[in-house]
Design the sequence.
């Protein structure tokens, strides 16, 4: 089998995490894998054998039209049998069976559209609406769509009426912690300067759907509720223009930090290389996430594996992934967030118990299992093609 992976959209966040973890396993599988990706990402995988790379640097705006016009030709050139489209948008007339990975919940999130309107982000609103049309059509174009959680798969089924299944994304603790490169001197100095403080960690670039503002609003409530404890929020981003991927503008969060007088409580660490993230998790006391929409939330599993208790917004995806290794709060309530953190900190035994449950639960997620299920899906599609003469839904 020749599996052709369109990874042009893997540039940051969950898409990059996915490719980084899946490609080494596919390289070891008894198939031939061809990956269409950017030259920057290609360099990261120079060590992989049994994988052919097609380098193509193209802007996000041009990507869709490039894929629709050039992708069939490239697949024929490499004798591809199955197409794995990883970037939410599929190929309209794929010459081979197509598996679409849908991992972006903004296209069917009413809260996200409302958020853009409230922020007067009208250009982003139009672009997201256009993207939602393409994303919904892509589900109908694909033979099958794979979502990274059952909660998100259910959302997609209700939204599109398409053929959607759930295959959990995975986690490999040994791979996650194998990089011994320490955190930079600058980051380490910032962490050393807050030694003894209660350190809350949130791993994310700045974007709107991660709901940074609710987290910032919780800080003065925490300061009042924990008068005998310094509280510091660790962010893996900077709340400054031009410092995050995408066109998200962090001015509202930055202004909120100043207005509420909590600048001393926010520690902006900037982007931490993926291989060094495990050092940061081990430096924190608690993981927090106020996201109002998600598809899988990789940092939840990373935090659980690192023994961090979790306080997460009450959305279906978080409950599916975190289960009883986390406690939950109404997603837009800063007061509820602060109360959950305060109650958890007041009970060291509960924190210890949650940490143990999280370590155990994180072992349920496996990239090896994910890849095996994807390859089984490829075999099923090819079997149906041989039996019916054409590829179709399964």
Sequence:
């Amino acid at each position: 089998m020749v599996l052709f992976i369109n990874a042009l959209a893997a540039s940051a966040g969950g898409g990059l995490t996915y490719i980084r973890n899946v490609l080494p396993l596919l390289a070891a599988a008894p198939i031939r894998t061809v990956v269409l990706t950017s030259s920057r990402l290609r360099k990261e995988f120079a060590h992989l054998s049994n994988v052919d790379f097609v380098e193509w640097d193209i802007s996000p705006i041009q990507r869709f039209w490039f894929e629709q016009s050039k992708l069939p030709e490239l697949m024929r050139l490499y004798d591809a049998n199955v197409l794995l489209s990883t970037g939410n948008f599929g190929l309209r007339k794929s010459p081979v069976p197509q598996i679409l990975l849908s991992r972006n919940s903004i296209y069917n999130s009413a809260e996200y559209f409302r958020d853009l309107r409230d922020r007067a982000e009208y250009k982003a609103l139009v672009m997201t609406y256009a993207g939602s049309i393409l994303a919904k059509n892509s589900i109908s174009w694909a033979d099958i769509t794979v979502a990274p959680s059952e909660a998100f798969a259910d959302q997609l089924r209700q939204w599109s009426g398409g053929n959607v299944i759930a295959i959990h994304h995975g986690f490999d603790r040994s791979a996650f912690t194998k990089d011994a490169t320490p955190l930079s001197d600058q980051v380490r100095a910032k962490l050393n300067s807050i030694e003894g403080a209660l350190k809350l960690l949130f791993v994310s670039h700045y974007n709107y759907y991660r709901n940074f503002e609710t987290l910032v609003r919780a800080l003065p409530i925490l300061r009042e509720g924990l008068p005998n404890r310094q509280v510091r929020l660790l962010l893996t981003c900077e709340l400054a223009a031009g410092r995050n991927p995408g066109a998200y503008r962090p001015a509202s969060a930055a202004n909120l930090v100043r207005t509420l007088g909590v600048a001393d409580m926010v520690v902006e660490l900037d982007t931490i290389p993926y291989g060094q993230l495990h050092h940061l998790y081990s430096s924190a006391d608690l993981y927090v996430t106020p996201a109002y929409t998600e598809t899988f939330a990789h940092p939840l599993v990373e935090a659980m594996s690192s023994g961090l208790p979790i306080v997460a917004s009450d959305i279906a995806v978080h409950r599916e992934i975190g289960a009883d290794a986390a406690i939950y709060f109404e997603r837009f309530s800063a007061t509820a967030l602060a109360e959950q953190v305060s109650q958890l900190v007041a009970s060291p035994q509960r924190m210890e118990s949650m940490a143990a449950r999280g370590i155990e639960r994180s072992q349920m997620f496996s990239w090896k299992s994910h890849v095996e299920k994807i390859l089984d899906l490829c075999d099923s599609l090819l079997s149906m093609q041989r039996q019916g003469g054409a590829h179709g839904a399964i």
User: Anything to note?
Assistant: The longest strand covers residues 32-37. DSSP finds 16 helices and 13 strands in the chain.
